[in-house]
Amino acid sequence: MNKVALVTGSTRGCGRAIAVELGRLGMTVFVTGRTTRTEKSPLNRPETIEDTADLVDAAGGRGIPVRCDFTSVSDVDALRERIESEVDGQLDILVNDVWGGDHMAQMWTPFWESDLDMALNLVHNSLDTHLIALHRMLPLILRKKGGIVIEVTDGDVDDYVGAGVPYHLVKCGIRALGRSLGVLLGEQGCVGMAVTPGFLRSEAMLDHFQVTEENWRDAPGKTAPADFEWSETPTYLGRGVAALVQDPDIARYAGKTVASWTLMHEYGFTDVDGTRPDFGAVLAGRKEQARL
């Protein structure tokens, strides 16, 4: 597939998995984030953009790692210049997954008792970054019809279910971006939308619950909530996005936020262990149905 994709925030988690699965389709993928083999982000995680690019290469694509802090307009401008110089400005797919707010999310602290600076920084780090990326990259997407922009959020509805006001604001805001892009890009012959994973079994989440991908099933009800039983790897959403971008009728999802489990039912893919987690069924209280 002779296409070029940019995945923001692809150092780890869903961003990494999406980049790899797009690479598996033979795409050139610009892999972006703040952590390189010589420089770490404030999260101090071990994963790097070079590692992700290597995984894209191994999957059959071409990974191009570019360090980029999406709070910095000049960094994003430099990234755009790299796209202009390396692939003549071709950009067919933008997956906007930049986040990096875990260390600022005061999820279970009443907002009026929380640290205001941390709350404001969370919003800046996790919502302004999406706006900056869109402002600078949409002109590349819109150079020809058929471009796709996918915002990555958490949850497919705007109901408040805890997790803190700033976090809720960010994730609702990203869903709102998906709705806006659905209209605006549709007028230009392109598609804008949002996607969400379920209970994500990311590298950071495994560390948080003190397990690995090999023994994670020991965690539910012990180091992790019981619902972790229905968790999913980042690859699950990655496979969903890969199926989406190959769908000639992807425009039917324009403006919507589509969950990994919805994509699974539509396209029939599995997680890496062969299961088909349906966290939507868990949220709806149909846990037996979620055992696929």
TrEMBL record:
Signal sequence coordinates: none
A Pfam entry, by short name: adh_short
Family matches, as InterPro entries: NAD(P)-bd_dom_sf, SDR_fam
SUPFAM superfamilies referenced in this protein's UniProt entry, alphabetically: NAD(P)-binding Rossmann-fold domains (SSF51735)
Gene3D superfamilies: NAD(P)-binding Rossmann-like Domain
Name of the protein in question: NAD(P)-dependent dehydrogenase, short-chain alcohol dehydrogenase family
Species assigned in the record: Amycolatopsis xylanica
